[in-house]
Each structure stands twice: as C-alpha cells, then as structure tokens.
Amino acid sequence: MATLSQPSKLPGSGVTSLSERPKGESLWANSLRRLVRNRLAVIGFVIIILMILVAIFADQIAPRGFAEANFKSGDSAPTWVTRVFPSMIPEGQEGGYVIIDESYTLGADALGRDLLSRIIYGSRVSLTVAFIGPLFAIAIGLFVGMAAGYFGGVVDNVLMRAVDIMYAFPTLLFIILLMTFFRFSTVAPEPGSLAATLGQFDKNSGGMLFIFVGIGLTSWMQMARLVRGQVLAAREQEYILASRSIGSKTPRILWGHILPNILGPLIVAETLTIPTYISYEAFLSFIGLGVQQPTPSWGSMISEGANAIRSYPNQALFPALALFLVMFAFNFLGDGLRDALDPRMRGKD
Amino acid sequence: MSRNRLVGLLLVIALLASLSVGLVGAQDKKILVTGRQMGSSDIPTIDPAIAEDVPSVQIIDEIFVALARPNEETAALGSGMATWTVSEDGLTYTFDIMENVPWVRYNAEIDAVEQLVGADGTPLVVTAQDFAYGILRSLNPETAAPYQYVLSPWIVGAPEYSNGEGAAEDVQVAVVDSNTLTITTPAPSAVVPFIFTMWVTMAQPQSIIEEYAEFWIDPENIATYGPFALKEWVRGDGGSLTLIKNPLWPGTENIPVPALDEVVFRFLDEEVQLTEFEAGTLDVAEAPDTEYARISADANLSASYFTGPGTCTYYYGFNVEREPFNDARARQAFSMAIDRETLTTDVLGAGQIPAGLFALPTLNAAPTSETFPDIGIGTDLEGAAALWGEYLAETGKTAADFNLTLFHNESGLHATIAQAVQQMWAETLGVNVQIATADFATYLDTRGNYDVYRAAWCYDYPDAHNFYYDAGWHSDLLSENDTHWSNADYDALVDQAFAAPTVEERAALYAQADDILVNTEAAIAPMYYYVTNDLTAPYVTRTHSFITREYYEKWDINR
Amino acid sequence: MVRFIVRRFLWMFLVLFVVSAITFVLLRAVPGGPFNSERGVPAPVQRSLTAKFGLDQPLINQYLKYVGDILVPRITDSTFKRTLTEDYLINIDLPFLGEEAAFRWMNFGPSLRVRSRTVNQLFLENLPVSIQLGSAALIVSLAIGVPLGIVAALKRNTRYDYASMGVAIIGVSIPIIIMAPLLQYFFGVQWGTLPVSGWGTLAHMIMPAFALGFAQSAIMARLTRASLLQVLGEDYIRTARAKGLSEQKVVLVHALKNALIPVVTIIGPLFAALVTGTFVTETFFSVPGMGRYFVTSVTNRDFTVVMGTILLYAVFLVLANLFVDVVYAWLDPRIRLS
User: Fold this and answer.
1) Which residue in the set A9, A170, A185 is minimally distant from C29, CB to CB?
2) Looking at the partner chain, which of B293, B415, B450 has a beta carbon nearest the beta carbon of A311?
3) pTM surpassing 0.90?
4) pLDDT digits (tens, 9 = 90+) for B244-265
5) Which residues 271-310 in chain B show a CB within 8 A of chain C?
6) Is A160 near chain C, with CB under 8 Å?
7) pLDDT digits over A234-254, tens only?
8) Got the DSSP string for B461-492?
9) Cβ-contact B82, B66 below 8 angstroms
10) Chain A neighbors of C218, CB-CB under 8 A
C-alpha cells in the first residue's frame, strides 16, 4: 500500500527538525512567530475563538430561545434584509409577499423562530463536531498508529490491514449505516438496557451523540496511518535509540520522546480535516439524519432553508455564511499551521 | 518521465469524461411535465400487478386501461375498457369489453408504435382472457403483489387463492367469450365498480410476461394497449420516462385519442421543478408549498398557478394502550388543542384545508362538514384545557407526570408541523411532548410503540369505504392499526354503510362512524386535507384532476 | 509487477469479504424492512414477499447465498431464463458446449424496493453516468486547483498566494446545497445560458461538474503548492537555475513534473469519492447516477442495493489505488512496487 502511507511524501514532517533548530529560538517559538506573520491564519484563529465564545455564551448573546416560535411571524424579515436580497419584495408592494417584522435581526423561519438566535445556538453543533472528530481521530488513531509503528511485525500488519479495510468503506455511507444502526436500533428498546440509555442520551443531546459516534468511528484511519509513518521514521532517530539503550521503557519512549516530535504534523492534518467533519454534519442534515428538531444546527438550517431559497434566501444564506466563515477559518488556520510547522520552510521568509 | 505520457493520460481521462449522448430532436406536440408526487425518484414499476404508489399508477393508467375509469374532474364512474351490467342479486358483474383494441409496442428502429403479432402471425388484440389473466396474476401469491389484499375481498374465491389456500380455478372470474367477462363478488355493494378502476384488474399480456419474466416492462419488451405507449425510460433517480401517442388506440368518449404526440415525465425535486418552470424548460410542474407566498404574489406565476383538492388526509394517531391516551377524554383534549386554522394558514400556508373529519370531502359517499355540521372534531382551546383538567383532576395527576413522545418520519414538513403542534400542546395543555424521528422504514416498523405518531391516508379508489375500512380502523385490520384502537359500533356502522344501497344512506352512516373515530373516541386527530398545487404554462390546455392521476389524452399544447 | 498486481487482487477479495460481512450485519440489525409501506402490508403479503426474496431464511444462509450468487459462476443451457433473481452481470456465450449454452457470473440480486430492477441493471445504467460526472468533476478540480497551487507556491506568502488559496478554499467552504440552486438560478433562469437540470449533453454536465469539482480544488491546490515548494528547494532545481535556464522553464519543465506526482496519488481515492459521493449534486441537478442509491438504499432498507453499492465502492477504491500505484511507478522510476 504505497500511496498514502509514505511519510516522506507528506509535507510537513517535523521529525528531522531537532538538529536544524536555529540557535536561541525554540522550535515552537519559531513556529509561532511564523504563524503570527501569516495574517490570514491569524484572522482564521480569531474567527474560531469568537465562534467558540459565541457557542459558550449562546444563552447570553441570543436575543431569543432557539425553539421560541411565533406562527404569525413565520417567514418574516426585517426591511434591511429585503434590501440586501431584492428578490424579497415586502408585502404591500406589487408582487410583494414578505411579512416585515423588524424585531428579527436576520428574519424568521417558517415557524417564526429567530434566525439569528438559531444561528448562534447552531454554532454549538458545528463546533462540537469540529472538535469531536479530531478527538476521536487522535484518541483512536494515535493509539493504533503508535502501536503499529512501534511494535511493527504482526501487530503492524494486523492493525494496518484493518485500517485498509475500514478505508474501503465509503466514509459517508459508513456514517449513514452506523447512524442508522445506532439511532434506530435504540428507537424503542427495552427500558433500562444499554441501548435505551444511549437512545435517551442521544435524544437529550438533541441527536448529537450518534452524529459524533458516526463521525468519530470513521475519522481515525487517516490519523493512524499518519502516526504510524511518523513513528516509523522517529524510531530510527538517534535520540530514540539512545533512550532505549539507557533502558527507557516502551511507554516512556512513546509518550515522552516520540509523541512530542510527531505532534506538529498531526495537528496540521486534523485542522485541515475539521472542515470535512463540519460538512458531514451539513450533509447528514440534508438527508434527514442530522440533529433532532428543534435543536438548531447550521446544516439543518441550510437544508431547510434551501427548500425555499428563492422566496426567502435569508433563511438558507445566513446560516450558510456562518458555516462558510468557520470552514474558511479552519482551512486558513490549517494552512498557516502547516507552513509554520514545516521545517523546510524555516528561515526562508 | 516524459511530458507526453502525462498529457496522454490526461487526454484519456478527458475522453472518458466527454462520452455524452446527443439530445433527441424536438417534436411537434411534446410536453415536458412532472407527475404527481413523482419528485426526483425513479418510478418504482409500471407492472399493473405490483404497483402500489401514485407515480407508478399514473404511468400504468395511461398505457393500460382498466375496465372502469373514474372521471378525473368529478370522480364519477365511467366506462373504461368495458361497459357492465349487474345481476339482480347485485353479485355478478358482466363486462362487455371493447373489441379490436390492439396490443402495441413502440419500435425504436422505425420510431413508431406498432401492433404486436402472435406466434401464429395473427395481430394481437385485448380480450377477456387477458383481463382474467391480469386479475389472477395480481392475486397469485407468487406475484406477491402489495395490493392483492385490496382486491381479494371483492371476488369470490380470491382471498383463499391469494393466501395460498385455494385454487386459481375457484376464483370467480369467468371468460364467457373473447369480449365478455363475468366476476362474482361476495356481497352486493355500490363500491364494487370502483374496484374495477384499479390497476390490479387491468389486462396483462400473458405471452410477453411468460417470455421476459419481470423484465417484461422494459420498453423493448412491453406490450400495452392504452392511449399512450412507452417510448423511453431513463431509469434511476433524476431520470425520465417518455410516453408516445398510441395511434392505434380506437378512442372513446371517456378516453379520446391523444392530441399530444409525446409526454415526457422528468423526475425532479420540487424546488428544481419550479426553477425549470421559471426557466421555461418545463411545461407543467408541481409547486412547492414553501414557495406558495411568492408564487401567489407574482403576476406571471400566479397566472399559471392552480390549486385544487388533494388526495390525502394528514392526521395524528394516539396510542390507546398508553397513558393518558387510554382515556378518550385525553385524546379529545389533545385533538381539540391542535389549532388547525393556525397550522394551515400560518405554518403551512399553501391552501391546505383544516380537517374535522377523517374522510376527504371529495370522495364518493363521504360525509362533509357542510352536509353534517354537527359531527367531527374542531379546534377548541378552552374546551381542550377544561377536558384535560377534568382528566387530570380525576386521575390525580399533573401534566408534568407525563413523558410523551410524538413520532414522525424524517421530512422537513413533518418536522415543522410536529414542532408547531408541540408548542400548541405546551401552551394549551401544559404538556411538554418530546419529538422523535426516524427514517421511513424504522418509522413504519416502530410507530406503534409511541404515544402519538403522524400519518396520512391517501385513497386508492375514490370511495369513502377506502378511508373507513382499508385505512385500518375496522377491527378486521386491527393488526395493521398502530393506534391499537377498535370499536364495535364503528365496525357495525362501516359494515352497514358498505351494504347500503344509496350514496345518501351510506354518507349518513359514515358520518356517524367518522364521529366515533375522530370525536367521541378520538382515536386519531385529523389535521388537514392535502391540496394539489401546480403550475401550467399558458400554452397548455388541460384538465385538472383531483383523483391521483392526470389523463394526458385530454391535454393539448399550442405554442 | 505482475506479482504485485495479483497480490493486490487477492487482497481485494479479502477486503470485499470483510466489508460485505460488516455491512450485512449492521444492516440487518436495524429495524424496518424493504417491504414496509405506509398503508401497512398484511401479513400474508409480507410472508410471500419475504419468501420470494429468501429473507425468511436464517441470516447466515442469506449471506452465504448472496456471496455465492456473486462468486460462483454458472454454465447454463437453453432452459435458463433471465429473471429478477437470475440476472448475471457477465454473460458469455459458449457455442461449443451446445446451443444457447452460456457462462454466467456475478448475480448481485434484485432490488428489493424497486420490484422490477436488479442491482446489475443499476450498475450498467446508472454507474456510467456517475463515472462521466466524476471524471468531469475531477478535471474541473485539476483545472482550478493545480494552477492556483502553482501561483500560490511561486508567489509564496504574498497576496497572490493568499488570493489563490482563498479562491480554492471558497470552493470547499460553500455547501453544494447552496451553490447548486444559486448556479441554477443565475445560469438557468436569469441568463438562460445552461439547462437547469438533467443529463445527456455536455451543457448539462457543466454546472454539476463545476459544483462538485470546485469543492475538491482546495485539496489539489494545497497539494500542488506544498509539493512544488518542496521540489523548488531540491538540488537539481538549483542546478537547473545555475545552468542559466529561464525561470519559466525551470518551473514548468523541471519542477512541475515532479511536483505533480503527489497530486497523481490522490486522484485515485478522489475519483472514487467523486463517483460515489455525489448525492447532493445528483439530487439538485437531476443526474440519473449512482450517488443517490448510496443514501436511499439505506433508508429504504434495500439490502441488496446497499450491499451492491458498498462493494462497488470498495472495488473502485482498490482498483483506483492500484491504477495510481502503477502509474506512479511509471512516472517516477525511483519507486519500486513491492
């Protein structure tokens, strides 16, 4: 399996960097300096921090509750929105159909729920997905990859063949299968059983649990390959051989020496994968496997809004803008991190 | 590496990509449409024996014709392939089938519809034998036809045969001569002729089916006889199906020779249908409910817009085996607390009609709120709160004691309605109901385990019996009834109505039955009647059907 | 080389076996079956349907029969009749064994939901559409991504770099759910330049291929940029420059051809993803491809179609990777297939 598992082909392997470090500046300080110089990466970072704050303080920021419906104001919009989207003609004008209600900053959905508040609360789902994916990936992928890379031989063979098999599943279809399995096998089980507990937990989390499980269980393979490659390369390094010769135990070598040195590429790889996880959530919403109503998520708001995108473009485009910003931010941050952590780039700028 | 190799590689990829097929040349009278409820999914089948959904039946009804045929604008019964007489005891129907209607197939090589010829060289025409074969094939347990259970109760010997317990010879469908068929029904009823409008009773080509097995419906194999023939079928979601005029169809008063040369059904999502219509590349489209406000305000679109009665009733079913819905008062209170007016105008807002009765008002022998103003259930928020309060006081419980779940299958519309109703119940009754969803297959399997589930019933034939009996409320069908409710009075009324001779008498009996179902027992809460909304280009002359299928042979196009 | 390919094929069979077993188990553990319908299917009909398609057998037998139908070839004589349950993907006439004798192989079974179609027909009729769309999208993503990546690498850390990567990232950040209706509105309704939806001509292909390909161009741009940057630092480039070759020639002839090797490696998995991951695009643009079945077959519990599509994807992925490995070795002689 030559293609994706060749560590030397992956840009950004930080392994060989120790000896090249410029005098008087640590590896991380150097990287940080170069990251900060990348303005777009900084902007991305700031956007992400802001979004995290919005998600945490949603209760304080949101003007209304996310489930608060006012049927009479269904599909209404404030005047400024109808000016931004000239196809939305206010009632009273010729061909007008949009109810004007200035109390909704971005407009209201079909049930008369505040779009802005729903976007604010929706950040919780998208951002949690953004961090759950990497969490699973690192938790499982790091373990599998390290074991395979460090022990080699049969362990390596078995683990990597398992990864290959997992790879042969189309990711999205596998997520759909897993979610269908987890969510619907727990729909009406015996009370008190594990399935019932999981089902209740999923319901209480607004249907997020099984989305996380689905995404998490399919996210770790790439990480496992990457880690394995990095470990293989690191294993032959002199400092590892040295610490082994002085009798260091395996776990200590793995956690103490190898991990810190492969962390950079892992962070880069995962940051660049985050947008994929976020888009999975949007896709799952589109096919009806997203969060459970009335919990808002950007994905579900976009796919609902897309049903009326010609009449009420604000209902789809504002959540899409939020999604776009976060995707953009993670992409730029990832690109910036990669450049900053890549030793070959050092001293060139 | 040489650059040439890379270029060569890219060229191969480009070549693969550009394998495309040219468009078919335009015809004189070719109409581009989207069928009722077709959406973007492929049409499941066009085999009359195994069809069970509206899109399939739409196509089948145009390429095969049943013995009887309802008028699409009045639902009145007319002749299809036959006229009929009934014996004095009301049990035996004798059908006189049209003579010399040829079996045809579209021949792509000569681009024309031609009559099929038998093995002995004689031209094939539709006979009584073909109808008898069709009916028996639909009933045959090996066919495993989803609709055999709708057909079998109406023919003596059929239930036993389709259950695998009886023989085909004992099914009382008899071929008298090549154009005469008699069918014997177990009990006299005014509903019987409606059964012979159904696709499962159509003539089917025995020799073709035996030769090609399940693939007999492919365009190159099929044999049909209706006003249109099958020209092309691009299968798959997002595909299309093309019907071509059958010039050999003799034409009758009910079913004329088509004016159109071709009807192209495109499988499109509703939102895409509207976009195509606005781009001028689709002549008839279904209008998405979500765009209703803009369409009706727009000068051009509203001129093309038509809204008419639909074919389904949307309702919530209460699980009568679970608290509090084991008490009729609780069910009534929950039903009365649904503000149907707000739901249809503010939440749905595409012309849906609030429902106080289960049966659609447009059906034959159906009671309506106009003719029977004192029956059925209505929105009454104070009444609901009072009734609920009474129930709580008597049982010594509080609203917070109940952990209820409302269950629906995944769909934007169902979710919107469920959330609206959730809020209405919270405001009026103080009950916080949870919403659970599942995909369609899971939903159908498990909805009987929840407190409340959403559902809709769409008719198979335009008679009220289909709603009061086949929908599952009669205790004969208790195993398919997910509310688990049954009622002896209701059963008796439906049975009486079935046998009653006049439409008026039947409607009066059904009115009482409906009142039990939705009001005094309130096993279900009817919420609204569907509407059909469509857009038609100004150059199309058409009829607007309110039975589930359109009859395109009555349409014309003048650009 | 031959040994390498043979080994890969053997490995593929093991992968397919495990993949199909996992899918089978997951699928059958979920409630709901393919024959459920809103109006409630009476028990006798359910029974005859499950019997007709063998779903009343023990699960292990069903699985073995499924695998057997695909793997075990048959030699048939004139009594053979093609039916829903006996439809083979590969049919070769064997005239020397007698009239109408034929070799038949790979029966993927009937679709349980669409009662008149087999999974083979689905492969034969809908897969080519997906391959066309996937190829077109791949070309779009290369055509957008590679030039952007080159510009970004050559003008590293300037505003050209940021702008190029920005454009590529816009593509991946706009959901197709939004991009598709906007494209359709502007190109289809407002300007009337392209057909709104459908399939058949090159014009029909443009919008879906763009929507699908643009989203992947960021990967291409990123890879091209990183790998070109790396190559530009290599000794032989310095040598070329030192020889006094024009910068244009250094970049386009010497650097680029090596820099594109990593791009080639991703084409395999990307192509597999593009051919199968087209649900949203196919839905919006009414493309009669395979992508929809990947999703609808699961929600419909159309067991055979789910199995068929998932196996198809696995075959596709393994073959695409194999193809890329071979091409890769051919492009870069330093790589030995082992």
Assistant:
1) A185
2) B293
3) no
4) 999 999 999 999 999 999 999 9
5) 271-272, 275-276, 278-281
6) no
7) 777 777 777 777 777 777 777
8) SSBTHIIIIITTTSGGGGGG-TT----HHHHH
9) no
10) 331
Please name which of B387, A212, A189, A221 lies closest in space to residue C317, comparing C-alpha atoms.
A221
Q: In angstroms, rounded to a whole number, what is the distance separating the alpha carbons of residues B49 and B140? A: 10
Q: Which of B248-257, B395-404, C153-162 has the highest mean pLDDT?
A: B248-257
Instruction: Note whether C295 contacts A287, CB cutoff 8 Å.
Output: yes
Contact A311 B410 (CB under 8 A): no
Reported as a pLDDT band with limits 50, 70 and 90, residue A349 is: very low
Query: B400-409, B506-515, C39-48: which range is least confident on average?
Result: C39-48
* Chain A hits for B420, Cβ within 8 Å: 69, 71, 111
Q: B310 to chain A, minimum CA–CA distance in Å?
A: 21
Taking residue A44's Cβ as centre, other Cβ atoms within 10 Å add up to 25
CATH 3.40.190.10 in chain B is located at: 7-269
* Chain B residues 224-253 with a CB less than 8 Å from chain C: 234-240
The verdict on a CB contact (< 8 Å) between A173 and C15 is: no
Identity of the residue in B290, B346, B418 whose CB atom sits nearest the CB atom of A71: B346
pLDDT band of B9, cuts 50, 70, 90 = low
Q: Which DSSP letter does residue B377 get?
A: -
Tell me the average pLDDT of chain B.
90
Q: Which domains does chain C have, with CATH numbers?
A: 119-331 (1.10.3720.10)
Q: What is the 3-state secondary structure (H, E, C) of chain A?
A: CCCCCCHHHCCCCCHHHHHHCCCCCCHHHHHHHHHHHCHHHHHHHHHHHHHHHHHHCHHHHCCCCCCCCCHHHCCCECHHHHHHCCCCCECCCCCCCECECCCCCCCECCCCCEHHHHHHHHHHHHHHHHHHHHHHHHHHHHHHHHHHHHHCHHHHHHHHHHHHHHHCCCHHHHHHHHHHHHHHHCCCCCCCCHHHHHHHHHHHCCCHHHHHHHHHHHHHHHHHHHHHHHHHHHHCCHHHHHHHHCCCCHHHHHHHHHHHHHHHHHHHHHHHHHHHHHHHHHHHHHCCCCCCCCCCCHHHHHHHHHHHCCCCHHHHHHHHHHHHHHHHHHHHHHHHHHHHHCHHHCCCC
Of residues B224 and A5, the one with the higher pLDDT is: B224
A37-68+113-345 homologous superfamily: MetI-like (1.10.3720.10)
Q: Is the Cβ pair C200, B45 closer than 8 Å?
A: no
Q: How many CB atoms sit inside 10 A of residue C96's CB?
A: 6
The chains found to touch C (3+ Cβ pairs under 8 angstroms) are A, B
**Under an 8 A CB cutoff, do C115 and B47 touch?**
yes
Query: Considering only CB atoms, which chain A residues are within 8 Å of B410?
Result: 288-289
- Of C149, C142, C186, which Cα lies nearest the Cα of C167? C149
Q: CB of A118 within 8 A of CB of A69?
A: no
- Chain B residue with CA closest to A66: the answer is B419
Where do the domains of chain A lie? 37-68+113-345
Task: Tell me which fold the domain B309-532 belongs to.
Answer: Dipeptide-binding Protein; domain 3 (3.10.105)
* Site from A13, A157, A169 to mutate, C interface, most C CB atoms within 10 angstroms: A169
Q: What is the ipTM of this complex?
A: 0.89
Pair of tokens at residue B449: 């385990």
Q: pLDDT by residue (tens digit) across A177-217?
A: 888 887 777 655 555 667 777 777 777 777 778 888 888 88
Helix/strand/coil for B291: helix
Spatial neighbors of A191 by CB under 8 A, at least 6 apart, are none
Q: Which CATH fold topology does B7-269 show?
A: D-Maltodextrin-Binding Protein; domain 2 (3.40.190)
Chain A: give the shortest CA distance to residue C215, in Å: 11
